[in-house]
TrEMBL record:
GO molecular function: amino acid binding
PROSITE patterns xrefs: ACT
Name of the protein in question: ACT domain-containing protein ACR
UniProt keyword annotations, A-Z: Repeat
Domain of life, per lineage: Eukaryota
Amino acid sequence: MARVCWPYFDPEYENLSVRINPPRVSVDNTSYRDCTLIKVDSVNKPGILLEVVQILSDLDLIITKAYISSDGGWFMDVFHVTDQHGKKITDGKTIDYIEKALGPKGHTTNGVNNWPGKRVGVHSLGDYTAIELIGRDRPGLLSEISAILTNLHFNVVAAEVWTHNRRIACVVYVNDDITCRAVDDPTRLSIMEEQLKNILRGCEDDEQVVRTSFSMGFTHVDRRLHQMLFADRDYEGSGLTTEVDHPTSFKPKITVEHCEDKDYSVVNVRCKDRAKLMFDIVCTLTDMQYVVFHAAISSDGPYASQEYYIRHMDGCTLDTAGEKERVIKCLEAAIQRRVSEGLSLELCAKDRVGLLSEVTRILRENGLAVTRAGVTTIGEKAVNVFYVRDASGNAVDMKTIEALRKEIGHTMMLKVKKDPASAKAPETSGWAKTNFFFGNLLEKFLA
């Protein structure tokens, strides 16, 4: 019998263009007085813009301007960035990381695996189990979730929680409260999942209103939260949003037009500027299967203007009114999910089993509703951040904060980051940039 010989195929062939023309990265601190200039030139590939923006966002860099062009086989990016205090990037380690992560051996060739601070996955975290939860939000829900995990002898070592349009999505990292190891007992996980479903379901009988899962593989946490809420169709609830949730002055202005010359759809976004705004928009466009060919981003005082020239992955533009309306709604939701206009409470304490359950119970008993949260453990210290409003969705009275401070002051440090009055007059006071980011904490926790 004749032996069939298959032609040899070099598995590295797909990376040949990258090896011939490796990415070029420059970090320039001399061209501009008030910002650092980061330039990236690379062979074009699907998703490369999101990968680059993700790295800059995970370093908590503020993008004040950006110019993107990726028509054809080459990708060129220029970013004007500062740190979260508005200063140039002068730290040698940060600059070295940027050059390596965006360079030939970095993020743009190896995917998200090089940045451990934003992963979700049961098998990728070693001593931690990652749980995804999504359902209808209500005051005190985070406290109830924390109490269940504590009662079942799970210790919460990190979590990130978003709420939008009365929906809640969270990724929670847990381990066994005695062994401090990941939990892989299917019976124990099944009991936890069922109890969490019951809590998330509340008084509703519809099984579709709640989902829990034990995450597998690698996903950036912020991107995963966007994906969860997008799949939950939270953008369709915008009609239910009250003025308390998102005042008119904060609503993004988004238009979709057609560029006749180059046959692109042009998405224009104008809204209040904030950290990670570009990541949220690019992430959503990518997950909606749109490709960004050109873009221009700028900040004008408290506002941001962003323009994206896009097509669908199949090469089509947005031709129907329904397609344009869906993109506008989805981008509005992506922008608003990370907006938290309540008080920001930062709590630091020595870590112990049940700490999150205790803290969220105290918040609930003082009539505070958590709209967004970041929880992590660094060594023996627990660092928790909660954005809160009162149970009706209004600004929190400072008397409540003082009562809260007296109740927990003897066991942990409490810092209030926003004055409720600033949320009442956004046009005159501007939008204060948050000085605290969950990305840094999760990076330290998972490193």
